[in-house]
Amino acid sequence: MIQTTVKKLGDNEHQVDVQIAQSEYDRIHAEQSSKLAGSTKLPGFRQGKMPADMLKKQFGAKLHEDTVSELLQTHYVAAIEASGLTPAAQPELDIPAVQPGAGFAFTMNVVTWPDVKVKALSKLKFNETEVEVTDADIQTVVDRLMESQVKYAVEDGRVAEKGDQVVIDFVGFIGDEAFEGGKGEDAPLVLGAGQFIPGFEDQLMGKKAGDDCTIEVTFPADYQANHLAGKAARFETQVKSVAKSVKATNNDELAEILGFENADALNADARTRLDAESEDAAKQGTREAAFEALLEANEVSLPDRLIEEDMKATTQRLTQNMQQQGMELTKEMFEDEAFKKEVRERSVKGLKLSVLMQSIRDEAGLEVEDADIDSEIEKMATQYPAEQKDQFVSWIKSQKEQMASVRERLLEGKCVEYIVSQAKTKKVSMTLSEWQEAQDKT
After folding, report:
1. How do residues 276-319 score in pLDDT, each as one tens digit?
2. Candidates 1.10.3120.10, 2.60.120.10, 1.10.10.10, 1.20.272.10; correct CATH number of 121-139+262-441?
3. For residues 217 and 440, what is the distance between their CA atoms, to the nearest angstrom?
4. Whole-prediction pTM
5. What stretch of H or E contains 233?
6. Which CATH fold topology does 150-247 show?
7. Strand, coil or helix: what is 431?
8. Which of 36, 254, 285, 334: disulfide with 129, CB 3.0–4.6 Å?
């Protein structure tokens, strides 16, 4: 039913000529004719009763287009399988204007992955990173928490000042009309934190619980709600409580604020978290060193179309990341030569590593067991509260893309471990703070 002829056009680029039998064309054409006849109504004919010759005369071009479309959808995958090729990018289709006397023909341009034989891993040399958590690292975390962790103690009759937390009810007005989104009840507000529009918090200084006041402000010209931008407003406000900020003065007090039994329990928790961070840091450092050594030792020639396809995907990922970070995107940004160069370098490096890693996996027979995936998911679930862990596990196991990502990450980890086991490595130790400082400079 399907015949394929493969012609090599260059390294990793092939032309696949596909011929589909006339009988298959006729079968699908008849199906499309039946569908069209059943949904078409013309004067003088009952729906579904139009003669075949008239249907062909009226809708011949459409029937042919629908038949070709269905043929491609039905036999596209089979044609690729028949060619014996594994595409590395979406094949390009070409349908000749002049068709053979019998049957239907089309051509695919197929780009395949480079076939690379990785050089002996035993000749690779790179540093194997070890990251150590010191008492100083733990103290840095505690000091940071000491500065950032604050609780608030309500004091009767206290006059609000900068740094205090007030709880207020308010209703906002433009002129004499209350505006949508301008009402709040039991709203906590730290004075001086800049949570509300400029001038609002300043006018609460000196107020006490039970005070009613009118706060007059002007919305910024670039305010996100266009109907309020640049407009003067007043807020009828009631102060319900004033609380003084309380910071810990020692580690035991800090532990109490954070819900730990004492300073030792706080330090133990900090060490556990930093140990996990240092383990990830060590893996990242070793991974990057192994990849650089692998790329330097092996030449990989990539087809241009494969690079172009990956650049599109890389640009899309970068765009999504920038949008999530609230960055403004412009046309000029994507046309910038430095931006395009960075995208191309990322794509080329990623593709070369994919080729090399796949070769290593195949040669070493590396695989990921279902038990490995279950263990990794359980580890991921530890970041959620106990009552949400089962829900997270069920959710991620129902997501094909997420599961594929977990499997790929574990497989990459096994591959790196294998490379390290075969290569000549030198252990390089550093503290976690030294690692973090080095990362900040890159």
Report:
1. 999 999 999 999 999 999 999 999 989 888 899 899 888 888 88
2. 1.10.3120.10
3. 40
4. 0.69
5. strand 232-247
6. Chitinase A; domain 3 (3.10.50)
7. strand
8. 285
